[in-house]
Design a protein that fits this description.
single chain, about 160 residues, alpha+beta, Aminopeptidase, 6-stranded mixed beta sheet, globular, Bact_Acetyltransf, Acyl_CoA_acyltransferase
Amino acid sequence: MIKKKLNYIGMGRGIKMNIYHAIIKDLEGVSKLFNLYRMFYQQPSDLEGAKTYIKKRLASRDSVILVVKDKQGYVGFTQLYPTFSSISMKRVWILNDLYVDAEARNQGVGEMLLDKAKEFAAETGAKSISLSTAPDNYSAQRLYERNGYVRDSHFYQYELGLP
């Protein structure tokens, strides 16, 4: 997995915020945000399950988690999963999760996460970043479109649920 270090200090809410690759010491903070993210999508709270899931991602390095912290604690994260495009023969990152704590919203945290995800993807030679969001998540749609993401009108997505 990619081991590129990323550290950035930006301003949000008028205070310094650190953006960096999550490591195992961030497990508690990231897991809490991940649990809140899942609850946003109508999943029941499961903090222990969230910890187990995030710990596995960090240990196996099969995803990249960017986390934002300020002096009060963890305020946002995004999780990227690698895949590849057979057509372009290049890496593609799937931005699967992006969550900003309710108290930190509308302060630029989401934009900071998207900027760093874009920078990271470019540094790894990726062709693109893809994502999906709920049809009724208008604030996320505005955020993505403001940051250059374009809604795909060429392909349909399908999913096969497995037992």
